Amino acid sequence: MTTNSTDYGKAGRNLPAAIAVGLGLFITLIISLFADVRFFTILVAFAAVLATRELSQTLVVGLSQRMIILLQILAPVIVVAASLRGVTGLVSTFLASVILILSVRLLDGEEAYVHHVTRSIFALVYVPVLASFAVLLSTQTDGAWKVLALVLLTAATDLGGYVAGALFGKHPMAPKISPNKTWEGFAGALVLQLVIGILLWLFVFDQSLWEGAIVGFIMMLSATFGDLIESMIKRDLGVKDMGSVLPGHGGVMDRLDSLVINSFVAWALFGIFL
Fold it and tell me: Is the pLDDT of residue 1 over 60?
């Protein structure tokens, strides 16, 4: 396992760098959403390429360069297809990608065939397929505001959990998966998430505050599970971060863990409550 030689205290990371990078990413997101929604699709497609590369290189041991390149090509194709043709484009392109993976992997021989194929398909599901639901949101009426709500309702879980955990955290929530997560942090995430959900539903979407509270609560749970899922994957693989491209954060996948899960959850919930 890769270890971090620098002690960042309770933060566990370079906090100034993390804040600077986080603000830069958020500003880029805002510009892409409200300037032209097509820019947002390009942004998601680019992030999907980087995250898929990180995941395929870390998750699939011994995967050939041919297959890694193929996955990086398929990831943005799936995202763009979702933008252009909706759910039909997403599903059909993903299934075509599965067939292509099964076929191209034949060129590398029989050794570890099932291992490589199944984990390659998992990488596509975990990154571009789930991320494509954010793109599907962006193409709807008030799509920019819906995607912004998705991001805020995911970031609130991370921020609320981090602040409350750093200040009051004493009781680990899942010590074998993510030792830094505490029940106090969980409570902080819940409070901030409910506040953000209610404010969004009242002042942005002009809907009932109870609906905003319900959506906030559910997305807080799914964001928490998204973070725990990636933590479990990293523990299983024996790595601290999926990459190092984002100072203070790790890899692209380390920032997308909760967002990709919540992209589908938001698409489903917003379809019900909006």
Answer: no
